[in-house]
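Technical annex, item 7. During the second reporting period the consortium partners agreed on a shared format for inverse folding records so that results from different sites could be compared directly. Each record opens with the tokenized structure and is followed by the designed sequence. A conforming record, contributed by the partner at site C, is shown below for reference.
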């Protein structure tokens, strides 16, 4: 699953991106339900690794299977 597909699923459950001024290949995301945030790599069309997706879900306080 690439960044765009993953973030569509995050938006569907209520997470949102925190807009930052700088460039770079990582984006900050926040889950208002759990008040937790994390950084997600934006590698374009390259797929995110399964371990990376698991870590992001854990950091945001969501169940990986709910995506």
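Designed sequence (site C submission):
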């Amino acid at each position: 699953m690439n960044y765009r597909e993953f973030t569509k699923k995050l938006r569907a459950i209520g997470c949102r991106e925190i807009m930052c001024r700088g460039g770079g290949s990582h984006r900050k995301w926040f889950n208002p339900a759990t008040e937790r945030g994390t950084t997600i790599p934006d590698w374009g069309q390259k797929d995110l690794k399964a371990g990376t997706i698991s870590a992001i879900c854990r950091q945001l306080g969501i169940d990986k299977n709910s995506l």
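The longest strand covers residues 26-31. The mean pLDDT is 93. All partners now use this format for quarterly exchanges.
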